[in-house]
Amino acid sequence: MSNNNLLGRRNFIKGMGAAAGVAMAAPAMAISEKAEGVKWDKEVEVLIIGSGFAGLAAAIEATRKGAKDVHIFEKMSYFGGNSAINGGLFAAPNTPMQNKEGVQDSVDRMVSDQMKSGRGIADEALLRHVAEHAMEALQMTFDAGSEYHPYLQQLGGHSVARTYQTTVSCGAGITQPLYKQCQKIGVKTHNRSKFEGFLVGEKGEILGVKMRQNYHFGEDQPGKVINIRASRGVIMATGGFAQNIDLRMAQDPTLTSEVGCTNAPGATGEGMYEMFRLGAVPVHLAHIQSGPWASPDEGGFGYVSNYSIYNFPHSMAINRLTGKRFMNEIADRKTRADAELACRDEKGEALPPILITSYKDSKKHPNTKKVIKYNVGWKFDSIEELAKHFDVPLKPLKAQIEEYNSYVKSGEDTQFGKNMTKAKDKYIQAPFTVVRLWPKVHYCQGGVQVNTKAEVKDSFTGEPISGLYAAGEVCGGIHGVSRLGSCSIPECMVMGMTAARSIMKA
Fold it and tell me: Which of 236, 325, 355, 387 has its CB surrounded by the most CB atoms within 10 Å?
């Protein structure tokens, strides 16, 4: 493919937005250009853009495979990206804790659960690749010093308990140890460094990048742009675009600025845009996932999200208009988010449902104290007090609790088919803790298409774009319509490690 074709696709993104009737302003665009005649200011061996799970894992693995000069560039002032504030939940099959707890699991079972959630359009080869190597990635976090709660969780859509959670209940419990490991092994890290475009060779290969130094997010940019050559190649680990309101509205007009978001401010998608300009294949951009465990009473990911994720298996979600359950509390994310959004009052206005848990069971999660302390959750000594506070009809609520507790006793939920394994002996009884639920934009299933070597495919030739690799949420098509919770960290880390292995073989 000629370089003219490669760089002549700048109207591609603009056209995408126009097709949806939405202006595509958002972040300032990077612009790639031919490398011919460029004065290189710096040369590195492996160049990684983004310092989340994928970028950090790629740096460590590249060094393990013999790279001597690995550089991570991060546009924000802090390292860790969106990964640092995610839920810190890591799913993998055949783990030490599963063996200890007697949980029967397998790669096939994990892939099957994800394919079901993906509604028929997930990429089975990529899901299998991640599941097969998930334990290697988990081991990398162990080696770096990550610490996890001493119990497994069974998240929505998973047929068994296979999820670890960091003791700090957020992704920083992984990104910080990985970052320290990078420093320890000699990886060079650069913050306030914004990707400004690729520098492309005569045959369309990626030779390097333009990088703006001293970048201050959201401000006028005084920093100098330098040209950096990457002798082995470039790994794009730039994350999703959930904070790019124009782009997400181009895919789903309902995702306006009024819809909350759990992502860090830097999740704006410039790296993905520029790979599209190069000719990368856009996949599943319209599949943007909302987290059904979020709260309308706090900003961002907050405290309620991890509280809810932990408590869903032994809690009841109640429609405040009817006093009755309205969903399987551990169905996949899309099923639950859609069910929550359907909770409306008589006028059709949003009426966030409530999640009711026995305090004696909820308090086992460290976030429970914070949820109550910061008034984003409530503790009640009686069902009458609870019903009055949320204006829930008392009689049907009492009947629902009695019915649900019969499912706890029998082990079978005949109302919504919930897997009651983790609800065993955990009856809904006073005192209660309660939070409100309302979905927030959380994860972009869409992005650039990659293969199981983390190579970025070209839309014209179907072949990999030479010198370019991608990993993490910037990639699309892996999870299909809906991603299962706790599957992003293994995906990001495994594909980051894969990109490093590929770049070191190239």
Answer: 236
